[in-house]
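retry 2 of 3: previous attempt timed out while embedding adenosine monophosphate. Reduced batch size to 1 and resubmitted. Inputs unchanged:
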Amino acid sequence: MSIETLSAAVRNIPDFPIAGIQFKDFTTLFQDARYLKELSDILYERYKDKGITKVVGIESRGFFMGPATALRLNAGFVPIRKPGKLPYRTIEEKYTKEYGEDAVQIHEDALEKNDIVLIHDDLLATGGTMAAAYNLVKKLGVKKIYINFLIELEDLRGRELFDKDVEIDTILKYDI
Ligand code: AMP
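retry 2 succeeded.
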């Protein structure tokens, strides 16, 4: 199946949730068993030889393909969540959004120094959310970090927030 077929299965909703946003709705892709399987196969093929020990998913849309990918890679799954959701001791990273500040947290004992980590989220827009997640994972001192998104909005240039040596992979690319 071609990437174009998968791209065409994502529904674009203009002006959601606010005017000016072209919202990429991938529920239309997930609901078709053939597309879901193809997406899972692509993720598996891209990371099967990297020695990934933990997939880290970002709340909440990183919780769809994150655990599914962890299962296929024979890796563990670790959630990064919004403040106040994780029950044990956490570390936190704040970041700036379009309007105001936000933060993400991870359990302080969720990763260890020998882990090879794949951080996964649905979509790369400005990159602020993933940059905060990346800093959190780095603070826990793992061996290597890979980053993956299902979708990249290339015109927003979110990639530029990251050092050149960070491997960022995206499956479906749109201008905006
Ligand atoms: P950012 O921190 O700007 O990269 O935004 C990342 C998060 O915002 C993603 O995890 C998405 O869930 C959501 N998001 C931002 N822009 C869009 C969009 N155009 N369509 C769908 N989700 C979006």
